[in-house]
Amino acid sequence: MSTPSPTKSSPPGVEPIATNPSPAGFSNTFLDNLVSTVEKLQSTVQNLEQQLKTQGILIDLLRQENEAHEADKLELEKKVQDWITRLTTYNVESLNDRMEEYEDRLNDQEDLLNDCMDECEGRLNDLEDNLGKLSVNTRSRLDGCETRLNNHEIRLDGHEAPLDGHQNRVDDYQARADDQQIRLEDYEEELDKLNVDTTSRLGDHEDRMDDHEARLGGHEASLDDDEKEANTLGLTTRSLLNDYRNHLDEYETRLNEYDEALDMMGLEKFDGRWEKKEDTRE
């Protein structure tokens, strides 16, 4: 006659096993409870498998999203590096080239203005020399005419000869003296015109120099605006990079949490399915 085994505590949700044995060793109540417990365990196993599948799908989606963000991050870093290279090249090389170009043009304008000034000064000096010589010659000839007229007057006073011939000669000398005076006035008028033309040309050159300086100031202001825009673009790009890095750190943290949860549950993925790890401990 067999002795009954000691009573064990039943798991939660499972009715205690009856102690009266059946003819086969188990009571009908025990068998019914055992079948019910097995069905509940099977249902629980199916629910766990479904949850594992769902978690696996979520992990795959997170990894795909992480890979997409990694690709976006690389593309954005490439664009940022390209912009930095372009802006650096533009700010240094282009600015130096344009400044050298404007300096060359200003030097050319200054050389042209100096040449015009030298030419005008040379022409003025030549005119002054010619006018001085003409004035001296004219005065000398007028003095000679006056001397000759005085001599003729003395001779006329001493002689009571007809004065018609002498008067004609005096008129001729006077006419020639008037012509010399007119030529002298023409030279003075030409000199005045040359002075006015030179002053006008100098004013035009000064206006052109002022215009070039104003245009150079406008270009410098435009370069300052381009530099400000480049700095703004760099700050915006850095802000976007920081946002992407924060998102990536958040996704990596969540992936690590999922991996730790799977490790705690003792699961690993085989052929697309999540299964319990084999216990390799002895």
UniProtKB/TrEMBL annotation:
Composition bias type Low complexity, residue spans: 1-12
UniProt-annotated stretches for the region Disordered: 1-25
The entry's keywords: Coiled coil
Residue ranges that the Swiss-Prot or TrEMBL entry lists as coiled coil: 31-137, 163-268
Protein name (record): Uncharacterized protein
Taxonomic lineage from the root: Eukaryota, Fungi, Dikarya, Ascomycota, Pezizomycotina
